[in-house]
Each structure stands twice: as C-alpha cells, then as structure tokens.
Amino acid sequence: MVGCYFFSWFSNSHWPIRLKSLSDNTGAESVSNKLFTTTHPLCLFVKILTCLASTTGIELDVSHIPGADNIIADDLSRWDFSTPIPHDFQPGERIQLSLSQLWHCSPQPTLHPPDSKLLWKLPLHFTE
User: Fold this and answer.
1) Which of 45, 59, 62, 116 is most buried, judging by how many CB atoms fall within 10 Å of its CB?
2) Cis omega before residue 109 (within 30°)?
3) How far apart are CA 1 and CA 4, in angstroms?
4) Contact 88/79 with Cβ under 8 angstroms?
5) Spatial distance between the Cα atoms of 54 and 104, rounded to a whole number of angstroms
6) Structural contact between residues 19 and 61, judged by C-beta atoms closer than 8 angstroms
C-alpha cells in the first residue's frame, strides 16, 4: 500500500521498488516473474498483479527456495491466528489489506508501527 499511496501522489516520477520474494512453487515463481499465463483462472490474478505492478512501479523478483528449506513460509501458511505468530514475527509487523484495497490500490496511508508520529500535517482529504 505504501507504493500505491506514493505513486498516486508522484505519478510523473519513476521510483522503482523491488519486492523480493521466495517461492517453493516453480509455477508460481515463473508466472510472477514473467507476469504471463494463459491458464484460467490464474490468468485473471496475473492480470490484476500486472496492473498493480504497472500502476505502482513495483518490480516483482521471485526466486526459488527448495520446499524443505521453506520453513518460515510453511509455518506462516499453517498459522491458526489464535496462537502466537511463528518465528518471532510481531503483530505490528503485519499489514492487513482487503482484496478491494489490493485490487484497486486506493490511497489509504497507514503508519507502521502504528504509534509512529508524523513531523508534518496530513492533507485535508486524509484528516476528514
């Protein structure tokens, strides 16, 4: 969302942001790096992902990690939300987005960590 907000205000500038990620799924890795597939319904997701990357200037960089070494991702994907977050991740490190926020990339700035203080005043349309 930071990229969405930033690029909505500075749309005439090019500020590349690269999101590095690891995947143990070679198909997902390939599709994420090429941003192309003809397989339905995956192609619908890739279309939205491509639009998001194009709108925000974010570059995806997905690398392969063998499944046996992908312990953190496996543990996070199996987390039941009622026990502590695995691997010492903190609740304040999580940014929750609705599908609508992700797909439409609407500017809704947030502070991370939430108790951060701004050294300037927000524009009027964000304080109303």
Assistant:
1) 62
2) no
3) 5
4) no
5) 13
6) yes
